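Project standup — Tuesday

K.O.: blocked on the structure for the chain from last sprint. Re-posting the sequence here as requested.
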Amino acid sequence: MSDEQLKNAKKDILWRVYLLFLAVFIFAVALIARMVYIQFSEGPALREKAKTQELREFTIKASRGNILAGDGSLLATSIPIFEIRMDVANGNISDDLFNTKVDSLAYRLSLLFGNKSKTAYKRELIAARKKGERYFLIHRKVTYEELKALRTFPILRRGKNRGGLITIQQTRRERPFGELASRTIGYVSGNNKILVGLEGAYTNVLTGKNGKQIMRRINHGAWIPIHDANEIEPADGLDIVTSLNINIQDVAENALLRQMIHHKAKMGCAILMEVKTGHIEAIANLKYDPKDGYYKENYNMAIAEKFEPGSTFKLPNIIAALEVGNARLTDSVITGEGFAVIHGLQVQDVHKIGNGRITVKDVFEHSSNVGMAKVINKSFEDNPSRYVDFLYSMSLNKPLGIEIKGERKPFIKHPVSDKKSWWKTSLTAMSFGYEVEITPLQLLTFYNAVANDGKMVKPVFVTEVREGGKTIQQFDTKVINPQIASTKTIQLARQLMEGVVLEGTAKKMQNDYFTTAGKTGTAKISGSHGYEKGAYNSTFIGYFPADNPQYSCVVVIQRPTENGYYGGTVAGPVFKEIAAKVFSTTLAFKMGFPDTATVKLPRTGQLTNYTDLNTIVNSLGIKNHDYLQDEQWASLEIEKNTVTIKAVDYSEKYVPDLRGMKAKDAVYLSESLGLKASVNGKGFVRNQSLKPGIPLQKGKTIKLQLAMW
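H.V.: unblocked you, prediction finished:
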């Protein structure tokens, strides 16, 4: 090959190489350009598309367990609520269908929820369809009843696949009885940081175990579940059964509310405890809310409010004096005109008691501050530590250790360990319930121990745990102190408390059906500058029946401002109403009755229309002997726990005993005997002007005073 040919061949090869390099360069530039384009132009769309293929593990929340009353009634439960969304761009919803029905759908949504106008709903639905939204929010916190209505609406009635209806189930805590015992039932909030009441105390029991589920994201953020072997079903929480009695709780709250309104009080509570078991069957707490101008149960006064108990603290004091202070009920105490200065402290009674020289028994029954101060000083003046040590031995200085959070520790100072706050007047002040602090529930627990022959038991709010209706755990009654004092002293204390009702400051607590034992208390409230003028805690505390205690009860009403402030006047009526309800619904036939005793059913008298009496007995399911047929008037006789309906014999020559009868029956019987009946009041015959058994004079007027028993 010549040089010329070689030169031409070389040029041809170089041209080909340059052409190849140019092609590679152009390809590289195009590739880079494409990468830049994809990164900045198509990148957002591709990243969004990648998200639609995302898998994620979701938590399936377990339902919280129920809180039940003693009879199984629901006090707190989790009910389903729903978040409602719509796949507006669903391909199965044609444009013709959407355009035809969107107007009526918007109208129905507006009518159901009332949060937006028809026009607003229609505008949002149309805009969502134009955007291609497949997860459009319609409404949150939708109830099951509202969901049922939604399923009948235009388009949505076609269901999920054909109508685009998306329902997301959630739960909401609901209290079927509203505010009833609401503070004791409580709540949990702030990611379990705020624990209140039974909800908080038993949150570990009520909270179930959440499940897990893998879900895939589809267009516009919607997630669909992928059911595979990794899915874990949630385990719902367990149920707890409380000791609360719904009927008694309702009576307690209403009775407390009426008294607080009548006396314009600021705060109050009422607690009912079963003596032997410590079961809390009612616990009402009310506090005036100035914002709403009404009373609410937003503070558990019974557990969290310490107060100076006043005269109700005379019970542990008299027990101390009798047990370790060598005092006797027959000892004489000079109270004079009801005023004395003891170790520099002025002590005063409400009024002079007797002739100024009374017994220790009278001191307690008539709640003499002067007398109690002298009894305690005489017993413990030389050794106050012995007095306080004995109070400690009765567990009065310790919290109860209840499961509900917020219990305050009682304050009973000691002359040795609290030297800085122990003054020469302290023993005197403590003798009638000052310079000590205790919660209503702690005070009730002590009184309950006296009713329980000296055995102090821990208050019980929850009796068992259930799973699917089956009991898996029961809580037995725990003893705090097996014997707070000797049997002899306890019996004397019980006699004194019964004497308060029979002869002392609580005579108004008497009734015709059962005996009551208790103590009144009226204590000043201290502020930042000493005791506030006109500010009192009014208390009544005790148990019933006095001869066979079944229930104990405390009522504390704080700062009554009208219509009196004494414990017997303000708190006493609440106690009395609760006790009457418990007796009429629970105790009258649960306990049985003494041999050969004739006992009337509540709200009936010894003379009752036979048909009415028979109906009442049978409706209550009481087994009875009924040998009557045509008699018009009858009564109940209970002998050895056997109920017998017997005819009542009365003579037309003598005035019958109408007391306890219904007004209409009393009027009918009076007029059938030729008397003229004059009625005053409502309810049942409490008194009659003509004494039973006196000769009957036809045409004479018999005045009947009625009362709601």
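K.O.: great, moving the ticket to review. The chain has four domains: 3-50, 60-242, 249-589, 608-707. The radius of gyration is 39 Å.
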